Structure formats: C-alpha cells, structure tokens
Amino acid sequence: DDPIFPCKLLSVHTFSFSFGLGHFLLDESWMASRIRSMSSSVSPKLGKILVANRGEIAARVFRTARRMGIPSVAICSEGDKQAFHVRMADEMVCVGPSRLVDSYLNVDRVVDAARSVGATLVHPGYGFLSENVDFAMALREAGIGFVGPSPEAIRAMGDKIQSKQIALEAGVHVIPGFVGQVKSAQHAVSVAEEVGFPVMVKASAGGGGKGMRIARTAADVREAFRLCTAEAKSYFGDDRLLIERFIEQPRHIEIQIMADQHGHIVYLPERECSIQRRNQKVIEEAPSPFVDLALRTQM
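Above: the chain's sequence. Below: its structure in token form.
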C-alpha cells in the first residue's frame, strides 16, 4: 500500500487473474512486502516529481505522490489544460500546442519544464518519451532523476542486434539466426539458407510491427531485404537488418522485471501476449493460462 511509485497499477492488471491459483510463485502480499522493503531504502526527501505523460497513468502517479507527500507537476498541451490529470497535480506547466510532437514528445520543452519548476524526478509513464534515449540522457545532463532505465539500457535494448548479443553473453537462449547486421540481399539469402526457412527479416531498430517480413523462399528473402531496408530507414532512420528463424504459431510470453538503484530486484508474473494483429499485441493477460508451474520456474 505504500509503493515508491504507482505499483497499484500492477496489482490491478497483473494480479487480477491470479487469485485462487495456489501454485503461483509470486502473490500480492509477497509483492507488497517486497515493495515496502524497496521503499525503506529510499530517502524520504525525494523532492518534486514531474510526470511527462497524461491520462490514467499520470493520474496514478499523482495519486501515489500525494499519498507519499511528494509535490507533483503535470505537463499539458494547450488543449489539455482542463484535463483530469492536470487537476490532480499540485502544479501545471504547458509545454506547447496540441500536436504531440510540439508538446508531450518534445524533449527540449519537457526538460525545460522540469528545470523551470525545480523538479528532481521525472516519471515518463508509458509511451511518449518513456523509451527515448535522448530524453533520458537530457535529464541526466540536467541533473534530474529519471524514473526508468538508464540511457545505456534503453539504447541497448532498443537495438535488436545489440540486445541479442547481450543475451548471448549472459547465457540466455535466443531465437536461432544471424546475430549481426545482414549486409546485402545475397548475404541475407545465405543466412536464411543456413538458419532454415521460414525466416523473419527484421529491422534492428524496429518496433510497432514495422520493418518486419516473413520469407519462405530465397526470392522472398531478397524482396523482404529490399522492403525492410527502405521501411527501417523511413521509420527509424536506421536501415540495419537481422534475420532469425520464424516460429510458426508461437506463444509470446513476457516477464516483467522491476529493480531500483539500490540493487533490489523483483520479477512479476508472466504476461500472455500471443493475440496480435499486424505484429502488435491486442490483448495481454496475466498470468498466462498456458504456462504451468514447471515452465514458470524455469523461465
């Protein structure tokens, strides 16, 4: 009941399906005790927190900040000045016009807003700038804490080639494929033949289902290489590609990890994310009804 940041969101979503499952490795009471333990290591003088988001996630952060006695600041666009999340905060800063690129997605304006109100922490919520390495770096340079991963972690995990290399170095299994940049269409064909069809040609910097093509023949690989290279450069400004084996009818399972700067780490129950449309998740359910105790323990 006294998380550092709004972990009740996790209780409502992640644990809503878990009651009555006696085999669960991680129940809500255990989670609450671990979060309280993590909280005890944090100085009560957290200063002022600015939330670089809007809607329900911003509202949850403000609710927790108020319970903890932390002054809070909302940002908004010119069209959001009367929004619910603004009314929940102690202060408000307008960061620009209604267009997202001119307000919530504008790194300079959000950082300037945090600096102008004397914020010591910025909570990015999800979406918007939460995975933007330039934003995390700009806050670091401004001496403002970022409630999220380090810029180095964001950069590494946002690069599929680098993240697979890190996983392999850590002894984590990855999908078979070529761990490195595919240099040409002919190189892509050679890799695909070695890996075994079908394969997925994928943008290293990709996301949101963009820059991905399934290839079942050498001709498919050449065409996928051409299309993915152009799409990756257009969407992400990075045309590097990788190839890995395409898994037919997979189960997409995610396990969330929460850690703080004091070395406390907890994992949360897995999420079933297999129902997708155009390579984007439609429904996420936790725990997965397809993961048993043995597999959960192994993961």
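The chain has a mean pLDDT of 85.
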